[in-house]
Design a protein that fits this description.
globular, 168 residues, 69% helix, 5 helices
């Protein structure tokens, strides 16, 4: 009794399912300009809370630090997931699932994101150089915080730029 080998999921099927999920009408209320800006604000707030947590984690009881970590992870997953649904995921979807206007929005978002990322890298390196210099007695966590925030912003920037741009 041998069973037939499992058919691998075709790449196109996976992209079409992802596109259908991101185009779900249940997310229409998050696709308004105001809602998208509020989501970007919530994301910025989470980054501020995360930064503060990294700077004071040495002074927190372990249970509180772990609770804060779990709350931040859940918050980031919820906000980023909703933000991607609000932008219909044009910044991450397969180009074959996008129409011409969405492709144009995607191109513009990536162009602006790369420009901002260049400036972000300049700021990050400047802060790292200042933090390791003898004239600034920066907390030990600053280099770690700069690295973590730079990576997070680099990953989130296309979705944020798309959300702040025109309707998708």
């Amino acid at each position: 009794m041998t069973s037939a080998p499992a058919r691998p999921v075709a790449r196109a099927d996976r992209h079409e399912r992802r596109a259908a999920t991101l185009d779900d009408p249940a997310f229409e209320r998050f696709r308004t300009r105001r809602a998208r800006r509020l989501l970007v604000g919530a994301l910025a707030g989470l980054l501020v809370v995360e930064s503060a947590a990294v700077l004071v984690v040495d002074h927190l009881p372990t249970a509180v630090a772990l609770g804060l970590l779990v709350a931040l992870v859940v918050g980031f997953v919820a906000v980023i997931g909703t933000l991607k649904a609000a932008t219909r995921g044009v910044e991450e979807r397969d180009p074959g699932t996008l129409d011409e206007r969405q492709l144009q929005v995607r191109g513009t978002a990536y162009r602006r994101s790369y420009t901002l990322l260049g400036w972000l890298a300049v700021v990050a390196v400047s802060v790292l150089l200042a933090a390791t210099s003898s004239w600034w007695d920066a907390p030990r966590a600053v280099p770690l915080l700069v690295g973590v925030l730079t990576v997070q912003l680099a990953l989130m920037l296309p979705a944020v730029v798309t959300a702040l741009g025109e309707d998708v």
